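Just scan my protein:

——
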Amino acid sequence: MACTDVEQFIKKLQQFSQKGTHPFKAQEDILKTALWIFRYRDHMNHTRTAKLDDSPSLPKAFTERKAVQVFHRCLNATTGSLPIITAFQSFHFNSVEKEIVLLLIIAYLGMLKNIDASEDIQRYINKQSVKRAMAVSKALSQQGRLIKSRVIRKNAKIVLSEDFVASIITKKQTFNSGWVVKSYDDLLDHTFALVRDAQLRAEALGELQKLGCGESEIAEVSENIHECMLQLDRTLEMHPSWKLNVIRESDLMLSERLMVYVLMGKDLGFFSPHDELFTGIGLARCASTDIPSVRHKLGLLKQDRSLRKDGYIRICGGASDNRAIEDEETLKNCEFELTSKFLKTINVKRCRKTGNSARKPIFKFDHLVLSDKIQSSLKICLTQARSHHILFEEWGLEKTITYGTGITLLFSGTSGTGKTACAEAIADELDKMIIAVNYAEIQDCWVGQTEKNIVRIFREASETDAVLFWDEADAMFYNRDTAVRNFEVRDVNVLLQELERFAGVCILSTNRKIYLDKALERRISMKIEFDRPNREIRRKIWQKLIPKEMPLGKDVSLDELSHEDLCGGEIKNVILNAARIALTNNNNGVCRKDIVEAIQMEREGRWSGSHETFGFRAT
């Protein structure tokens, strides 16, 4: 390099230093000043190496250290409107990292040559200082921010990411700027790509373990996962009030954060809840980049590790507090989910079957006509439900009765006697939601899934403080001695365990006499038989179900109707059918004849005036 050239850019640096701290107005000014600094350092390193005696005499007022200090102060004073400055601020680069990026940009533009190795970068950044050399090496390591942020790539050569270079040259802030989302729900939808890539990596590692193939797929999908995680973080940084920032700002490792995002995808409905991805082995594989890592990642799911200890995730099936499942082989097969508390924190609702969702009750006690015996029994149960804290806390029963403190009622009786309506009315009286379930909704053909469904239902009832109503309970709560299959015994075992733990109101309903398991007998607080109504009750039911607005003929007598042996459900059907008949015949109201015909229809189980029955005709 000619002496005049050296003197020229040294004078420019001197002039730059004398101006003091001031923001850069353009990226070109940043790169031009950085180029002067790098050329000076290169010249000084070359002079020391060659031991040249004819090096130019430097201006006395100039020191490289002062120029670099002013340069970095100017960078810090510059706003984020310039793409280079935006990148520096987003990734929180230090002075060494900033200089490395600027050096590689200048080299990319062809203003400096042969800069693609660590020693080349050291020549322009290092000032013959061991401490500085170590800082450069750290910045270029795989754990450094430059590579983690994907601003640079380090393989055979050290080069800038093409996306990053494009964002700087075109001055469009597109590099790692996050996803373009309009709302928090939009952000949650975007996490599908991350969960999908996690599933692909889990499947690829599974294939590699079984068949010894899939290494190329693992490397490619791992790159995608890293990119998605980075973009998600960038997006959350731009929206600090969004709830998902609690994950980004946590002390969780990247692998643990990925597991949380994957389980969030379970509740967002991205994949079937039965997918292997949500098991211990699936989560361990999705967070691993190679086979040896799988065992270590599986350890992150243990009870004493952050994910479960700090309440991010739990094992489905209510077994989170059971240390017998902490061995690796058992954890592999366990299904995991986010805890309800954490789901509430990130404002995500748990994905559930519609039939098992808590809802408001539709009946009140004002709608029902119950015998004095049933009302007396229900009054006792309602008193316990309302005064639970008095019984168990103030009166000290919690010290002597540590489990089975809930209320379990067994409603039995023929169909139409008001069992379901009464369960709804109890929920309304207690100002609670109700969850109505039956055998068809929880039975599953997959081994072990029925038990998980049972646990989920009880858990949802606990979390929503809802009344749990089991319709057709005889299909599930039968005597284990009569079971003919192993899974039937397991189902009843889980039911009994969950019923023991449940502290709320659980109502079992059956249309027929059943032989209960002895263990279930002990758990039932009260058995209530819903008999067919007597004449007095029937008259009250007729009176309550016939609205004042319905025009009744003068020949209709409630006393006469109460003689008919009908239950509440049958009386309801009779009133509806009588009204239909009256409208069909263009009557001005419902007369005695219409009601008689409707009663006949209800008794014979037919819907037409003929005596033909539904079904296949015998031949």
